[in-house]
Queue: 2 jobs
Job 1
Amino acid sequence: MADIVYGIYEKRLVQQAGGRTPRHVGVMLDGNRRWAREAGFTDVNDGHRVGARRIADLLGWCEEAGVEVVTLWLLSTDNLNRDAAELQPLLEIIGDVVDELAEPGAPWRLRIIGALDVLPVETATRLKAAAGRAAGREGVEVNIAVGYGGRQEIADAVRKLLQQHAEAGTSIEALAEVLDVDHISEHLYTSGQPDPDLVIRTSGEQRLSGFLLWQSAHSEFHFCEAYWPDFRRTDFLRALRAYGIRHRRFGS
């Protein structure tokens, strides 16, 4: 009976969204550790393991809704300061997730974004190899943000821009004359992709914490009370409904 009720409710959520679908959805998969503690687990990485199993579900919901790009924030640069006893299992979980998304028959295209040079070499190599195996697919493009920080991304973009123009012999003075936001955007980790229309954060926290700082200037935000391991299709459809009924002003 509950399944029937939820099915009817979900159809209504889809109707209320009015057919307005975000092209790019960013998701902050937050609350795994708190979920594990409240569920009685002694190892907080059990929360990450349960949360990891929700990722393919989310991508399926996005594909069904017509979303073209999904950015998943799995590990921030700040997370790298965690105790090794917690960090190493988390890196293994992330590696397992990305390998699963790259399996033959999976439709996802993968892009690894973040400062990969701050990750252990074996982790960075594993992630890049998985993305290579998923190249050329036609499904939803999935950005896996690992070792990611918004300020770091902007700093990296400016550094790449300066290096490019230095190699071309452009002086700093000449670059300063023409530099605009598009020059920086071209060197972001998400270069070539649309900016996120909708950013979802689970766990009830209501802040960006540095996620897609540059790209989210005109994004709509949806904060969900559920911890990531408890995030359901209904929660996703509520986020799409919230997006669908808003009047986007793009900063005006």
Note: The chain has one domain: 2-244.
Job 2
Amino acid sequence: MSLQQNLSNFMNTIRLSRNQSITEFAEEIGVSRSEMQHILKGTCNPRIDTLKYIAKNLDVDPATLILPSYTEPQQDFALLLLRTLDAFLELPEDQQENAVYLFHQLILLMKKR
């Protein structure tokens, strides 16, 4: 898969997870709507400084934007995991400790299979 397609897949996943229009997403990222359309279609060859700018605005490592992308089920799982982590971070500290303990117990159960 090409670097352009990897970028397209990553950006589409983020935009869809936020339920944003192309215009809203472009404004948030700080690029023009037309440039965002090219990125989302995989027809854009952004410069390195543009990738760094986008990554900074998304708070991700620039390499993340162009690394090989996930399959659709993997993307769905990754989004679910990210949402779970967001919810975890909103818990009080004592509940976080309990959640970590329960997660550990789940891993141990799965290990026995």
Note: Residues 72-111 form one domain.
